[in-house]
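sry for the spam today, last one i promise. struct tokens for design, 148 residues
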């Protein structure tokens, strides 16, 4: 089950539960990394989602936002994935800055799952086949999430 559609998430806990379901239903790409792009303004819930998704993939350590390091890498022990990449492109100006991190190898490996916050700043190097998750602020407790 993939989760295309628009959802209303009424608390951080609902966003986390949605992330668990999303991972449970995710079909891994066979020839490339599985890439999940998280669009949305500051505070819209992107990191909340990634933390819960990482937990669903067995990562117990807290996933802090990688804003100051661009990229964080976690080893996984799941059926489909052996490594998780959490990228925050907020401070990047163009995709070529990711190439220096070995981006072409990262996105070519089917055993990789990649979460990218602020993907619009590196739009020129995103794989065409990817999951786009767009978070919108509704009110203090509520976010809208569109998944394509
Ligand atoms: N429904 C919701 N889903 C996710 N976060 C929410 C929700 N309602 C309120 N919040 C709050 O909004 C903030 C989201 O922060 P974060 O996930 O770091 O956003 P981003 O990574 O998009 O900047 C957190 O303080 C969280 O508690
Ligand atoms: Mg964030």
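last one done:
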């Amino acid at each position: 089950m993939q989760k295309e559609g628009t959802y209303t998430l009424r608390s951080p806990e609902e966003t986390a539960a949605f992330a668990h379901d999303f991972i449970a239903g995710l079909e891994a790409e066979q020839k490339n990394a599985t890439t999940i792009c998280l669009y949305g303004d500051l505070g819209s819930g992107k990191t909340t989602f990634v933390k819960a998704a990482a937990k669903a993939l067995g990562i117990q350590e807290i996933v802090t936002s990688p804003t100051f390091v661009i990229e964080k890498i976690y080893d996984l022990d799941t059926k489909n994935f052996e490594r998780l990449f959490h990228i925050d492109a907020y401070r990047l100006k163009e995709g070529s800055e990711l190439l220096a991190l070995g981006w072409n190898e990262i996105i070519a490996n089917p055993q990789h799952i990649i979460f990218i916050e602020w993907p619009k700043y590196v739009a020129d190097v995103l794989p065409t086949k990817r999951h786009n998750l767009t978070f919108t602020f509704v009110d203090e407790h509520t976010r809208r999430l569109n998944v394509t």
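Residues 46-47, 65, 117 surround magnesium ion (ligand 2) (CB under 6 Å). ok im logging off now
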